[in-house]
Specification:
With 309 residues, the chain is of the alpha/beta class. It folds into three domains: 6-80 and 154-223, Rossmann fold; 95-148, no CATH class; 227-291, 2-Layer Sandwich (Alpha-Beta Plaits). Helices cover 30% and strands 28% of the residues. The protein contains ten helices and 14 strands. The strands form three sheets. It has a six-stranded mixed beta sheet, with helices on both faces. It is elongated, with a radius of gyration of 24 Å.
Length: 309
């Protein structure tokens, strides 16, 4: 289907007291993709997710989930989405299996159709199925939240900072599971402060800043827009004084013989930078370049607040 998994149209949210968390936000989440929703703290990401989850009332605009308008068909819309919250929220006196069974019951899923044991196995929690949830480690609790969000097999899974405070091995297990879900056709919406994760996982990324969308493009195209590039240059002797030149955006001393120079590729090229160095009488013995990554783009957009061209 051409219809997006999620459609956000002119969404606004103003809290009591006048704080405007979302300001005319519009974007589509294509079906079957891993979609990154990024932004600094306080940008409006969690407010947007809570609106989709039915936990926060929007002030204006429209949201459609799997073809169901959130206002006109709230039950169908909410049944089409599973949300893993940023906060670890659970009842400490239920076991993981009881937690999943109760959640499935709330969605009206018959006992014969429940997949609690399958989810526990996928989240590597089978051996903790009958332990009190309060005895689980932080990483286990977070994986339990992922399982809880999937009890009704929604076509869309929203992960709000799912790897915060999770160790490397648990992070790998979580992403393996997310990739399996994605391969099965589940649409994934991910918020994370680990930009390298977003760069590796996401097909498309939207960046929110001050409640507005400042970028929304396929990941590769977004990274390609970065204008700053770096060149690392090593010389044949110690550097007496760090050189300056109008074509250098920034310059840093790596060690006594090595400089890292940032330049804007829309204004100059690496040849111009190297030429400026040799003109200063410096003799270059080694050169390497560093291509821009998602972090470069992200910092550029949130520092300027300007929309990607």
């Amino acid at each position: 289907m051409d219809e997006p998994a999620i459609r956000i149209e002119s969404l606004c949210k103003t809290y009591a007291g006048g704080k405007r968390a979302l300001n005319d936000v519009s974007f589509d989440v294509p079906r079957g993709q891993i979609f990154g929703l990024l932004g600094p703290n306080g940008a409006g990401k969690s407010t947007l997710i809570n609106i989709l989850a039915g936990l926060v009332m929007k002030s204006d605009g429209k949201a459609t989930i799997w073809g169901f308008d959130l206002d006109e068909h709230p039950r169908n819309a909410k049944r089409s989405i599973g949300v893993v919250p940023q906060e670890i929220i659970f009842d400490p006196f239920f076991t993981p299996r009881e937690t999943l069974e109760i959640q499935a019951g709330l969605y009206g899923i018959p006992k014969s159709e429940r997949i609690s044991d399958e989810l526990l196995a996928a989240m590597h929690l089978t051996d903790k199925a009958h332990a009190y949830s309060r005895t689980l480690s932080g990483g286990m609790k977070r994986r339990l939240l992922v399982a809880k969000a999937m009890v009704h097999s929604p076509p869309i899974l929203v992960l709000d900072e799912p790897t915060a405070g999770v160790d490397v091995e648990l992070r790998r297990q979580l992403w393996d599971y997310v990739r399996r879900l994605h391969a099965q056709g589940v649409t994934i919406v991910l918020t994370t402060h680990y930009l390298e994760e977003a760069e590796q996982l996401c097909d498309r990324i939207a960046i929110i800043h001050h409640g507005r969308v400042v970028a929304n493009e396929p990941t590769r195209e977004l990274i390609a827009k970065a204008q700053e590039k770096a060149v690392v240059v090593t010389f044949d002797r110690d550097i007496g004084a760090v050189p300056t030149n109008a074509c250098f955006e920034n310059i840093a001393l790596v060690d006594e013989r090595t400089l890292e120079i940032t330049y804007r590729k829309d204004k100059v090229n690496a040849g111009d930078v190297l030429g400026a160095l040799t003109a200063d009488g410096l003799h270059i013995v080694d050169v390497s370049t560093r291509d821009p990554d998602l972090e470069d783009v992200f910092l550029s957009l949130v520092s300027s607040g300007q929309e990607a061209a």
